[in-house]
Design a protein that fits this description.
InterPro entries: ARM-like (IPR011989), ARM-type_fold (IPR016024), Armadillo (IPR000225), Insc_C (IPR045789), INSC_LBD (IPR031938), INSC_LBD_sf (IPR038205), Inscuteable (IPR039921). The chain is an all-alpha fold. It is built from 27 helices and no strands.
């Protein structure tokens, strides 16, 4: 049996972040860890560094690091000692993060001609580089000759860099310093290039080791550990996901998903796949191994746990995201779409938690963007009734993120003429009216943005559905017109969102055609009669009175 708690607590945090518009780091940047940042003086800082340094390098730091009282010294980034027990790969990434940060700051100090600071930071980078290489060589298996070559190149160039900056602090002649600055800049650039190339080789090597371990092991425990490490790597940014995809990570993980002996690892494996498929290379690999067919088989197999179905839905949500520019690979998706949509609707209906519903509804919402045929399938499956019923259960639809997915599906389905009667029967107009009042409880920027999307899409859905006189009449009776006017005239009600304003103006104009008596003359003259762009400009220039 699969353990449903495999994805529980850790997954809950991931769900809360899933729809906050999180971006991956630039592919050229190094992986960035969440660091424990503390403000310390120079001696305290050295005591912290001591935990990551070898004895000889500690002496180097002790002799070379100045005890500075400069203001910027107080804000330098440090690793807390709580990370001393981290696994080797995480330690490597943290060390790489420190070096990357230090190199950036050296460039900043160099720009300001602060040579003493440049030299002391160069010494520190030299120590960190040597420590990183020493630490890595103590745990890595079968490092390549190319890696050893880059290690030597980097160490030599760091020594050269330190010697350069030492000569700079021994002269006070501005002309000489000016002529040396270009050489120092050039050396810094070379150090950064060698460092980036070495880290790329190291991460590729480790990804290869993990994937080889997954492929060759028959042990559930060993495979689980390797997949867990692989998942940790995927959380370091898009660049690492590309490395894993290029090394065949998607192929390897789908092999696990096709072996019954590893069923207990399906949720963890699918979660890792969803992360890798955020990049184009991962998507192409998924297409090559018939990944969509495998996902369809998992979703339609009732013997799998809810956790497995939810993680499969997460992969579907990822690969069908309307924000992705690469969708050519999804040609095979159409062949399996009906089966997948049917399984996702069932998962929404039977969801035991808000997290499961969010993943399933997010996948459905993305699919409705992907192909209009999905809306017709949803209508045939009575999905409208199921989704509206779920919204009345606060245990299942418990966040603006979930309501955002539901109203997205309603908005995309509302282009179908048959949708109006389904909405009315399911008390959907009342739900849309409630969504026009959506407010953030936490005040976080991500949740506020989700609330804006809910307001906008509920107004869009009302505008589309109000072409049906019965829907328009129901909306008028539920006082939708006064609420739409309030959203148009009060910037704070819509959190100053222009997209909400445009959607509300469109809905208001549609309802005004069906029920003109619901508007006062001033509202009609300002919000309905003028061109839409003129009404928009009028509303965006309104200033609320706080008297």
């Amino acid at each position: 049996m699969e353990d449903p708690n495999l994805w529980g607590s850790a997954h809950k945090k991931r769900i809360n972040m899933a729809f906050k518009g999180k971006d991956h780091l630039d592919s050229l940047s190094l992986p960035v860890q969440r660091m424990h940042l503390i403000q310390v003086d120079s001696v305290q800082r050295w005591m912290e560094d001591l935990k990551l340094m070898t004895d000889c390098e500690c002496m180097c730091i002790l002799q070379s690091k100045p005890i500075s009282i400069e203001k910027d010294e107080q804000n330098e980034l440090m690793l807390s000692s709580q990370y001393s027990t981290c696994d080797n790969l995480q330690l490597l990434l943290k060390r790489a993060w420190i070096i990357s940060t230090e190199l950036t700051r050296i460039a900043q100090k160099l720009e300001k001609n602060r040579w003493q600071r440049v030299h002391s930071m160069t010494v520190r980078v030299n120590c960190h580089v040597r420590s990183m290489i020493n630490e890595y060589n103590t745990f890595t298996r079968n490092p390549s000759e190319e890696m050893h070559q880059f290690e030597k190149l980097l160490i030599d160039k760091c020594s050269e860099f330190t010697a350069f900056t030492e000569r700079c602090i021994q002269t006070e002649d501005e002309e000489i310093l000016k002529s040396m600055k270009s050489c120092v800049n050039e050396t810094l650039t070379t150090v950064a290039q060698y460092f980036g190339q070495l880290i790329e080789l190291v991460l590729t090597h480790e990804a290869q080791n993990l994937l080889r371990q997954i492929e060759l092991s028959d042990s559930v425990h060993v495979t689980e550990s390797a997949i867990s490490s692989l998942f940790s790597l995927t959380q370091e940014g898009a660049h690492l996901c590309r490395i894993i995809a290029k090394e065949g990570g998607v192929v390897t993980l789908f092999k696990i998903c096709r072996q019954d002996c590893f069923r207990c690892l399906y949720p963890q494996t699918l979660r890792t796949l969803a992360s890798i498929c955020c990049v184009e290379e991962g998507m192409h690999q998924l297409e090559k191994v018939d990944g969509i067919l495998c996902l369809a088989d998992i979703l339609t197999d009732n013997s799998h746990s809810e956790a497995t179905h939810a993680e499969a839905a997460a992969v579907i949500a990822q690969i069908t995201s309307p924000h992705l520019t690469f969708t050519q690979h999804l040609s095979s998706f159409l062949e399996n779409m009906e089966e997948i949509v049917t399984a996702l609707v069932k998962l929404c209906q039977e969801a035991s938690s808000g997290e499961v519903f969010l993943l399933a509804s997010a996948a459905l919402a993305n699919i409705t963007f992907f192909d209009t045929m999905a809306c017709e399938i949803l209508l045939q499956l009575n999905a409208m009734k199921i989704l509206l019923a779920a919204c009345s259960d606060k245990r299942i639809v418990d966040t603006p993120y979930s309501r955002d997915q539901v109203v997205t599906i309603l908005a995309n389905m509302s282009v179908l003429d048959q949708c109006a009667s389904e909405i009315i029967q399911g008390n959907g107009i009342q739900l849309l009216m409630e969504m026009l009042f959506e407010k953030s409880s936490s005040g976080s920027s991500a949740e506020v943005a989700a609330c804006e999307r809910v307001q906008q899409k509920s107004a869009v859905t009302l505008a589309r559905l109000s072409r049906d006189p019965e829907v328009a009449d129901a909306a008028v009776k539920l006082s939708c017109i006064p609420r739409l006017i309030k959203l148009c005239r009060s910037p704070t009600e819509r959190n100053n969102s222009d997209s909400v304003l445009v959607a509300c103006l469109a809905a208001l104009r549609r309802l005004a055609v069906m029920s003109p008596e619901g508007l006062e003359d001033s509202d009609f003259q300002q919000l309905v009669k003028p061109r839409l762009v003129d009404s928009f400009l009028l509303c965006t220039n309104m200033e609320e009175s706080f008297v």
